[in-house]
Amino acid sequence: MSTTSPADRMSFSSGSARSLASGHRLSPLDVLVLSTWCGLAAGWLEVGTRILSRSIHPTRGLYLMSRHFVWLVPLANLLLFFVVGLFLAVITMIWPRRGGWLTPRLLCAGAVLPALMVAGPRIYTVAWLIVASGIATRLVPWLERWSWADSTDPRPARLRRWLRWSFPCLLGSVLVVAGVVVGEDWIKQWREVRRPLPSADSPNILLIVLDTVRADHLSLYGYPRATSRALERLAQRGIRFDEARATAPWTLPSHASMFSGRWPHELDVQWSAPLRSRFPTLAGYLGSQGYATAGFVANTEYCSYETGLGRGFTNYEDYVLDLRHLYPLRLAALVQWGWDGVANLSLWLVQDRPAARFHPWLKWLQATARKDAGLINREFLEWLTHRPEPGRPFFAFLNYFDAHTPYLPPEGAGFRFARPQTLADFDLLDDLFKTIDKARLKPNYRELVGASYDNCLAYLDDRLGELFETLHRRGVLDRTWVIVTADHGEELGGHGLYEHGESLYRPEIRVPLVIVPPSGRPSPVVVPEMVSLRDLPATIVDLVGLAAGAPFPGRSLARFWREPAAGAAPGARDEEGALSELTAPNPSNPSSGRSPATRGPLISLAEGDYVYIRNEKDGREQLFHERADPAESDNRARDEAMQPVLERMRRRLDQMKAGSPPAAR
User: What is the pTM of this model?
Assistant: First the structure.
């Protein structure tokens, strides 16, 4: 039963009639000004909602977009609403009354919609559109009554005055925020050039991290396919570590350990929580000692500036703001939503055509901001060429992402070992690879997945070869330590698992590690001992002569190729063990719930010939003999003969986690 009184209904009807009758008062110019104002308002509402949502999130999650979004989102919405305003201005010219009534309601709904989409990303956008329309139908009549209240002017004079002074403020705020973000980079560069230069013989450091590269799929470590010819040539001039271990099986905590020298449990890095500023970073320390610091990353999700890994770098390039595919504009929720809608519609229209996947319009619409190795090389070489002080030694960090899913080399790169033949093959490696249960893959598809991964390794290795050749030709390698490693490996079906962030088994944490001194060594060195990437910061400050007073724990890996210390027993092993951790499984669930981490956090210790893995929640234990059982298929934790080894590994792991000094052996 309706509770609205006759007087209320009469008032509402008269208000609606007055609103409709007054529609002719909006001129086309009014529509354009109102559209651009609503665009800026929509942008700031979206930015504010993103910041607020992150601040109240229990883990303070990542934005997963360029840090320039704070000014690019309002600008993108401004342009979008201006285009819409042109269309609405034409409608208002043709149908003044109807256009004048419809325009403010559409613009109001559009201004509110992006904030709703950001606040509730799991709710269908169409549902939010209905909510935004409801808000507009209630809010616009009130604004119209306010605009004409106490005014004898037949035009919306109060509204025009409001727009006249508020629009410059909104637009000016965009310029101010853009200036602050860009100015921050300028200030960091200004500070760097004013720091005293290190000693004249200080070498450069080039740290290359190959995202998602497992060691046993590289010909460098005996793999039958020629996936790493360039790395093999590089290793002939330096030191190759055969048993290097990452501290975590996924990107962010592994990189955080390489930059801070800390174990993952000390850093408390989570899937949606960035690296905090509690511990100093390698870039920050070397920068304070006069080094030029620069980072170039292709993994824009877990290596971006907002993850905390960019802290200490003067120059840090993550997201590509390339207008070729309108990436800066697609930071805005409405633009990205419309872009995805057009792409999906185009794909549906041509889905029955055999060449649909390769249709040029579809390829343009479905393009992502993924950075290939060639682009990372160009960014680094361009910085190297144009940096303001060529004589200042540098610490450069390069992150390559080409071996990551979907295991498809960039367009035009070719397929060295196997080529997807059908649309189903490409779908498997692209969209469907994220949704299907890969344990049910047919044998030919399993072979395709492995061969496609190797294709990406070979492409990446070719680009590394090109980079080393260019640096050699320029003479840069004559005073540069080159360190090549990976942040983690990749599961390709072992233990029923795929991708990474799923376990602490060998395929996910055994990584390549090659260190090459300036000008190379006369003969290569192979280190068979178990080492951890956690020791890289201590190693790097040792190599550049800045170990004294450095804030990084761990021991320099240089001890493995320098002359042994006096009194050392011949043939004695000098290893401390490698600790690895995984607090939670990959949130994308690539293994359909089969990750051992679903039962609780995992921690492992690789030491000598053994690897010990423990679930910190239910206490389940696994013990593998690495050299006799590299596939880790024989759990010896319950063998009576292994109990002394098991007890030693338990005690050693607890000591390392508690920060105790290593037990004497």
Answer: 0.89
